[in-house]
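Tokens for Bifunctional glutamine synthetase adenylyltransferase/adenylyl-removing enzyme. Go.
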Amino acid sequence: MPVSTTTSSDDPLQQIIARAIERLRHAAARSALDIPFDDPAFHAALSRVAIASDFAVDTFERQPELLQRLSLDAGTTPLPAPDLSAGSRDDWARMLRRWRAAESARLVWRDVLDLDDVDATLAGTTHLAERCLQLAHDALEAEFIARHGVVRDSGGQPVRLVVFALGKLGGGELNFSSDVDLVYAYPHEGESGGPRPLPAETWCMRLGQALAKLLDEVTVDGFCHRVDLRLRPFGGAGRLALSFGAMEQYFQREGRDWERYAWQKARPVAGDIAAGEAFLSGLRPFVYRRYLDFGALDGLRGMKAAISAEVARKELADDIKRGRGGIREIEFFAQVLQLIHGGRDAALRGRRLQPALQALAAARHVPAETAQALLEAYRWLRRLENRLQMLRDAQVHALPEEPLDRARIAAGLGLSWDALAQVLAHHREVVASTFDALLHREQASRTADCDLAGYWRALPEAGEPAQLEAAGFGDAQAVDAALRDFARSPGVRDLPDIARTRLERVMPVLLQASAPADRPLEAVRRLLALLHNVLRRSSYLALLDEQPAALARLVDLMTRSAFLAERVAMHPLLLDELLDARIEGPLPGRAQLHAACEAALARDDVEAALYALNEVRQTLSFRIALAMLDGRQGAQDSARQLAWLADGVVAAVLELARRGMHDSHGRIDGARFAVLGYGSLGGEELGVGSDLDLVFLYDAPATAQSDGPRPLDAIRWHARLAQKMVALLGTVTGAGRLYEVDIRLRPDGASGLLVSSLASYDDYQRERAWTWEHQALVRARAVAGDDGLVAEFERVRAAALAHRRDADVLHDDIVSMRQRMRGELDRSRDGVFDLKQGEGGLVDLEFLVQYLVLREAHASPELLLPRATPALLEALCAAGVLAADIGRSLREAHATLLALGLGQTLDRRPRLVPDSRRLQDARASVRAAGASLLGIDPLAGVLAASG
């Protein structure tokens, strides 16, 4: 609703406009300034500003040249900052206050006239406060140096004060008339070297006191910025300035939940900015835990309860900041989700609220429509808050009680008061309902059978196994014994009260969900193994207590997959995956998997990098396996992704090993190295928990030596490189072990050298390799190393596989090898089939494919490109070697056998499965296709090209 500019003696708003313009005309006349008061557009603009802000009118009256400037450029250009070095010490306060008032009035002008949106106003207010802090700090620092000298640490390096901004200034979203929350610190102890030396703490404390006084003290020119120093360690009772070391000790020993929220937005704004950023980087583990931190919700509940009590006590229902559905609830909503998830996702660690909400929505921790509604509410509430403060430059957050003030605020926003109240009520209800839902502890954990809850609380002294039997446990006595042992354990006995309360809520749900499992005793034992490991980490109990969805997923996982249950019990960090929103989205591709592994190498040392790489491997392989268990992804896609992940890990480990060799022995000019993957890794059909079949190649000048302090010749240098890789892949860290490695497929097997030169590898494949070694070569591929050597390997492999062979000899070699393997390895028995070695199983299918590739590659070089069995079958059909219908049936058989095999592996069961119609169909396809190879039916009846 635009403000009318017509005059009316009984219209209060028009009276305010008339008085304001009259005052400003007199001020302009006194200063002999030509200001176009009679210009209709300027008069209308000035009228709108006069309605919205007495502060702006007062500033224009004291500085009419500012109003003249606004009439010319509408405040597009910020006013130049004062040069404190050009004035005397006594002028600093006046210069800062006049500039702050003028810049603030310019921001009012642009905000009220809709020349800036609320985001620009908040950014302008933030920048103004920062510049005032920096100008004041720098001027005072120069004065202190002249009086006391530069503070230096024991190493002679300068020590400067760091001014941290917390709250909205730290977050870059300062409201119009807010105070600024500051904390003072300094990097190291030391002493100044001037004529009146001071220790670092005293020097920085006095500088901080002078800074606060210069900004905060009320003079005839008003104030610059209100300064609040109470958020420092130990609050008002604490020292004004602390060293970084003392700050770190405080947060380690005394840090409280509310301080995590406060320091989440911390930002160095004056003094030694670089040192401040380095300190905040080190403080990150205090703010952001490495795991999903649902314990932060309890801290927020406590903070919210205290604020609500204050609101009720002081009757602040109309407070749009602290009241129900106010700005603080939006801030808390975003911040607690950042604290919960930010330890795992760096994209969620931003200081500013609006980008944080957008990042949370992008990561699917908040529904997009909820985030949008909160953003709209936030912008509207912050605009209203600014207008409340712009009226008289007062730090107010409550709606005015005076009817005239209400009319002014509403008119400035183009609304009637009733319309404003209606919009406000809508936004506050949206915020309040969203915030309440966040803090509401879902009731799923209360739905457990009350008898089970009573049974658990009675342990270990009381409780009856019959209660478990009634709940559906078949082996109630054994389950009861396991639970009693758990309840007696020191970990449970010594739990703090809050953790015990959480466990009492969680356990009945876990028990009730475990009863219907195929093997309930096993499920309970797996759950107890996990709980033993997480009792000391209350955040994990909080996750299960606060998130019924995670609890349900955990029980499902524990009852269906021994492998994943074992992984979670050993590495509780994987519990985070049960609630990671990305787990329901598309799984990472090859490039993303490799990038995640490469990012682990950013750590400073090998041990840290190896730990990080293990965490990446554990997390991503768990996510892939869980997608397979849930049926969101097929076995072939999962096996391929597991192989890609292994590729990324091997490449990262190669880089770590190379770094170590370079440090110890230097480099070898012109040397090249490559890692080959054989077996399921080479064929991109890796299982969960599979080992890696690796072969190492190198190429270097014959007389080459490394250039380090302990030089090695090429063969020993590359042998040690390979040894380092095998050791690193198998090293046990706190985050697990990467992979077991099998190196027996190298030329000459266990008796051969660990690494082969390209020339010797080529010679071996041409002259001495057995047929079964060329079979293995069909699926071999380079997984890491120098591109040039990888290309050379491809040339050697192609030449070896494309060699024309005697079909009868090839057939006899493969049949003989397969018969020998089956006799030694097939564990099939009546009603139970060995998926890998049984007749019509995976190895039969692989042997058939390898036989056909070796027989036909000389005539069909396109068979040399694929490695994976499905792709090889497609290539054989495309080359006319296999009939299309046979190729299709074999691909289906492979998918079935692979899925059954991975399913068994996921539950830690041998790949022995009961016969079924699905399995019989798959075996029949393989047996029919490979009949001649296995010595049953003529091969020519199946193959389109009999050879």
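The two ends are 89 Å apart (CA to CA).
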